[in-house]
């Protein structure tokens, strides 16, 4: 049995947060043992509480992002409420906020102001589009950021773009905020100083678009929308079996292709054929590759295919 304390035991986090990005970041800090004090509006709290009632009467997004926290309702427009939050921050190790752009600065709760007042504090600003630039004051919604970062351009079918089924932009921002806090706390352990952490949803999700970005920058055709298929790997799709089941295949390298050809498809010659021997060749001949796999799996039941795999 592990008797070690959790990694963030003794760390206090104060977070003025709503929706997904900041709450998911601080929930992970709570999972690692931090005490997280969630500051909410007095008129209904975090608006994510109202998304649905699926989780035993509570909103599924809210339950997902807010376990392990304490909650405090504070009116930040009231000087008395703001004073309460300032007092909490003075005793905290980490402060996180994802208010509308400019709101935290007007309250004196932006990262730069707080770090100047509390040098050991790690202060996190999470925004949609960053503190500067033409989009800085735009409202940021996950679907919009998925479009603007380019994720939707490579997701879906040739006929229909789709967004990811989970809030990818929020999750990306949360993960970078979470890792930023951990890095800043590690630095504080050696220097004695905290510092600001700034994360935007657009920057975070744009980082996830690295491989299509490099393809475009270096003259290649940007990856098309291919449904379950992969733009540069083959075979990589769902294939029907004789009993109507579907088997999803993702062959990542040529060794796997050889084993698939020999042990599942029953066509070892495909591993030697120059039209199929390498991933580059299989991708160039995707239609023939997929046809060979489809024909072989159509003669097997789903159970037989899985046994071979």
UniProtKB/TrEMBL annotation:
Recorded hits in Pfam families, A to Z, give:
CoA_transf_3
Query: Sorted alphabetically, which InterPro entries does this protein's record hold?
Result: CoA-transferase_III_domain, CoA-Trfase_fam_III, CoA-Trfase_III_dom3_sf, CoA-Trfase_III_dom_1_sf
Gene3D superfamilies for the chain: Crotonobetainyl-coa:carnitine coa-transferase, domain 1, formyl-coa transferase, domain 3
Q: Does the keyword Transferase apply?
A: yes
Keywords, alphabetical: Transferase
Show the GO MF annotations.
CoA-transferase activity
Recorded protein name is: CoA transferase
- What are the leading ranks of the lineage? Bacteria, Bacillati, Actinomycetota, Actinomycetes, Kitasatosporales
């Amino acid at each position: 049995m592990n008797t070690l304390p959790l990694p963030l035991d003794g760390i206090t986090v104060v977070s003025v947060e709503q929706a997904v990005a900041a709450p998911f970041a601080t929930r992970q800090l709570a999972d690692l043992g931090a005490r997280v004090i969630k500051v909410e509006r007095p008129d209904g709290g975090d608006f994510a509480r109202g998304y649905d009632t699926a989780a035993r009467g509570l909103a599924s997004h809210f339950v997902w992002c807010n376990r392990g926290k304490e909650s405090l309702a504070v009116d930040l427009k009231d000087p008395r409420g703001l004073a309460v939050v300032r007092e909490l921050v003075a005793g905290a190790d980490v402060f996180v906020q994802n208010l509308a752009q400019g709101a935290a600065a007007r309250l004196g709760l932006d990262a730069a102001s707080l770090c100047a007042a509390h040098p050991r504090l790690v202060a996190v600003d999470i925004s949609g589009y960053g503190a500067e630039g033409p989009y800085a004051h735009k409202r940021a919604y996950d679907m919009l950021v998925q479009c603007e970062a380019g994720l939707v351009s490579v997701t879906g079918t040739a006929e229909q773009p789709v967004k990811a089924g989970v809030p990818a932009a929020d999750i990306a921002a949360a993960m970078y905020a979470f890792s930023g806090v951990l890095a800043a706390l590690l630095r504080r352990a050696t220097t004695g100083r905290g510092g600001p952490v700034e994360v935007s949803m657009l920057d975070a999700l744009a980082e996830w678009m690295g491989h299509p970005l490099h393809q475009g920058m270096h003259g290649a055709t940007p990856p098309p929308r291919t449904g379950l298929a992969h733009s540069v790997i083959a075979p990589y799709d769902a294939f029907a079996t004789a009993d109507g089941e579907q088997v999803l295949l993702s062959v990542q390298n040529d060794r796997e292709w050889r084993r698939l050809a020999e042990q599942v498809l029953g066509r070892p010659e495909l591993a030697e054929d120059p039209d199929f021997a390498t991933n580059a060749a299989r991708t160039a001949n995707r239609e023939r590759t997929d046809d060979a796999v489809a024909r072989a799996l159509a003669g097997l039941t789903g159970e037989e295919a899985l046994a071979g795999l």
